[in-house]
Amino acid sequence: MPASIEKVPLEDILNRRILVVDDAKSLCVLLFSILKKAGFTNITMAENGMEAMSVIAATPPDLIILDLMMPIMDGMEVCRLARQIEDTASIPIIIQTAMDNQGERLKAFAVGASDLITKPVYPQELVARTKLHLQNLVLAEKQERYLNRVADELAMAKDVQQNLLPSPQFLAEIKARFQVSIASVCEPSSELGGDFWRVEPLKNGSLGFYIADFSGHGVVSALNTVRLHTLMYNIDHDWDNPCSILERVNLDLCRILPTGQFATMMIGIISREENTLYYAAAAAPQPIYGTWTSPDSVEYLDTSGLPLGISEKASYETRKITFSKDNFLFCYSDALTETQMKNGTYLEGDLLLDKVKNLSSSLGNKNLLDQVMKDFYEHKRHLLKDDLTAVSFDYLD
């Protein structure tokens, strides 16, 4: 017997509901007696298919031992109907038959039989097969409960993670206060993701933001995003400059991330007073920066730098560019460029740059991120294999 079956205690199956169906009352009583002697305590008998279906409808059993040749309704029909009822759709059904016809046996399996025993029934075989199927049923129920619990916990964790992202209401407040329009998409490839971004009003009147992508995806990466949120929350909102914040976060991540885990990140400060964007990056995908009225000015920004969490000696550089009402910034995680399109290409390099150029010149200061993402979802070939985040920034007119 498999080791997994041995883990199910016998007492867990002895009170399971067993329905014995046979038109020969003497055989029905015999099967009842064999099972009773083996310790099973919850056994019901039925003498034909119609009676069996009444029992199944009233009190769905955990296992059916079913004769094939019966008047009124035969075992084939009982088996077929039982598989159509939700409560008995997956329970074990053991067919007992004296037929040697291979075609009839195959037909029994085709309508939903789980197992087959031949008449005359051998008591030890009947008991062994009954135990085996009920133990398998218990294991299947435990697995289903476990999977449901995991699904519930993942759903709650996803809500927690989503609640850490900027809400539409918060972005509307940013828009009204700073006259900066921020659009975003954040879609995990599974229940939980390793992408994360935030935007923060700073005490000096500027607007700070950061976008991060942890290696991998799923539960571990999601936990790392919560770690990052905590680290960034503990940084005073008087941010001195992006490179010093990156260096501080890098030191913290080097100490807490397991070997082989790391993050890419871009952090920026938008100064409305200076019409300037200060930013520093740690191997983040290159954001696209441009001027609405000049498509030729659209370009990738330099985001070179060692990923966070690899070396405590890593250093980063703060860069400075003009950012006024004529400019826009489009940031994204690498799922955008590493997802294959239906035509076999990837939205990277000049393809992405040209797409943003064309859209920015045709749209003007409107819905750039929405149009880029609409085009992406329409033309991507497969489901996302990595988490996808995209965020755009521009001033209101």
SSE topology sketch:
Layout (H helix, E strand, L loop, with lengths): L2 H4 L11 E4 L3 H13 L5 E4 L2 H10 L4 E5 L7 H8 L10 E5 L4 H9 L4 E4 L4 H42 L3 H11 L1 E8 L7 E7 L5 E8 L4 H15 L8 H15 L6 E9 L4 E7 L5 E4 L2 E7 L18 E4 L4 E6 L2 H4 L10 H15 L4 H12 L8 E8 L2
Parallel strand pairs: 1-2, 1-3, 3-4, 4-5
Antiparallel strand pairs: 6-15, 7-8, 8-9, 9-10, 10-13, 11-12, 11-14, 14-15
Helix pairs in contact: 3-4
Largest sheet: 5 strands, parallel
Structural Rg: 32 Å
Average pLDDT, rounded to a whole number, is 91
Number of helices: 12
Unreliably modeled segments: 1-6
The largest sheet has its strands arranged as: 2-1-3-4-5
Strand content: 15-25%
As a percent range, the share of helical residues equals: 25-40%
Order of helices and strands: HEHEHEHEHEHHEEEHHEEEEEEHHHE
Form type = elongated
**Structural classification:** alpha/beta
Q: Find the count of extended strands (DSSP E, 2+ residues).
A: 15
Main attributes of the structure:
40% helix, disordered N terminus, alpha/beta, single chain, 397 residues, five-stranded antiparallel β-sheet, five-stranded parallel β-sheet
What does this structure look like?
- The strands form three sheets. The chain has a five-stranded parallel beta sheet with strand order 2-1-3-4-5, sandwiched between helices. The protein has a five-stranded antiparallel beta sheet with strand order 6-15-14-11-12.
- The protein has helices at residues 3-6, 25-37, 49-58, 75-82, 102-110, 123-164, 168-178, 219-233, 242-256, 335-338, 349-363, 368-379, and strands spanning 18-21, 43-46, 63-67, 93-97, 115-118, 180-187, 195-201, 207-214, 263-271, 276-282, 288-291, 294-300, 319-322, 327-332, 388-395.
- 34% of the residues are buried.
- It has 397 residues and is an alpha/beta fold.
- A hairpin with a 5-residue loop joins strand 7 and strand 8.
- It starts with a helix and ends with a strand.
- It contains twelve helices and 15 strands.
- 40% of the residues lie in helices and 23% in strands.
- Helix 3 (49-58) runs parallel beside helix 4 (75-82).
